[in-house]
From TrEMBL:
<dbReference type="GO" id="GO:0009254">
    <property type="term" value="P:peptidoglycan turnover"/>
</dbReference>
<keyword id="KW-0479">Metal-binding</keyword>
<feature type="domain" description="N-acetylmuramoyl-L-alanine amidase">
    <location>
        <begin position="36"/>
        <end position="184"/>
    </location>
</feature>
<keyword id="KW-0961">Cell wall biogenesis/degradation</keyword>
<keyword id="KW-0963">Cytoplasm</keyword>
<dbReference type="GO" id="GO:0005737">
    <property type="term" value="C:cytoplasm"/>
</dbReference>
<dbReference type="GO" id="GO:0009253">
    <property type="term" value="P:peptidoglycan catabolic process"/>
</dbReference>
<dbReference type="Pfam" id="PF01510">
    <property type="entry name" value="Amidase_2"/>
</dbReference>
<dbReference type="InterPro" id="IPR036505">
    <property type="entry name" value="Amidase/PGRP_sf"/>
</dbReference>
<dbReference type="GO" id="GO:0046872">
    <property type="term" value="F:metal ion binding"/>
</dbReference>
<keyword id="KW-0378">Hydrolase</keyword>
<dbReference type="InterPro" id="IPR051206">
    <property type="entry name" value="NAMLAA_amidase_2"/>
</dbReference>
<dbReference type="GO" id="GO:0071555">
    <property type="term" value="P:cell wall organization"/>
</dbReference>
<dbReference type="GO" id="GO:0008745">
    <property type="term" value="F:N-acetylmuramoyl-L-alanine amidase activity"/>
</dbReference>
<comment type="similarity">
    <text>Belongs to the N-acetylmuramoyl-L-alanine amidase 2 family.</text>
</comment>
<dbReference type="InterPro" id="IPR002502">
    <property type="entry name" value="Amidase_domain"/>
</dbReference>
<protein>
    <recommendedName>
        <fullName>1,6-anhydro-N-acetylmuramyl-L-alanine amidase AmpD</fullName>
        <ecNumber>3.5.1.28</ecNumber>
    </recommendedName>
</protein>
Amino acid sequence: MRGAALSTPSWAHVSSVNLSEQGWLSASPNVHIAPSPNFNARPSEEISLLVLHNISLPPNCFEGDAVVQFFQNQLDFDAHPWFENIRDVTVSAHFFIRRNGFIVQLVSTLNRAWHAGVSEHQGRSGCNDFSIGIELEGNDTQAFSDPQYQALLALCQALYQRHPSLNAVRGHEHIAPSRKTDPGPYFDWAHLVQNGPWGVESYPDFRV
Ligand SMILES: [Zn+2]
């Protein structure tokens, strides 16, 4: 059961994307480049972990551009009362996949985006150092859309080819279990395992 009623007027059907040597997708009608200033250099070149998230701003709202504005430090914090909760938060992710399947890239995969926060994977802390972060527009209580899975699979294929050192896929909830619950119980891990480029050993076995 995926594909809740959506208000977004147009749908992307992203079947293939390509990451450049510099870690950027090529812009296209279904791929938007919206650079965020919230990044820095990775401490090493290692990129071994893919982290999946969900986000919507305000929570449960899938309209407007608040998420991208937030990641670009351009959100009007007076536009909604809930935004007061994130007024002092400076974060980013490499990618944001909208409900309609459009992909927004904010940070080059070669750089360190600020999506994981205090986190740990296989005994190593600071997952931002060695991970790529993908935000899915959504929440913990609704299924993600079919166009989002289609775009995610296309993006995963491009990441697999450009960054062959990627060998693990986790949710934010797995690397920061005391703080985070995303992408949450409605994310279809089995779909990603069955259709994505990585083998089952790359996933959290307790969810597959
Ligand atoms: Zn998250």
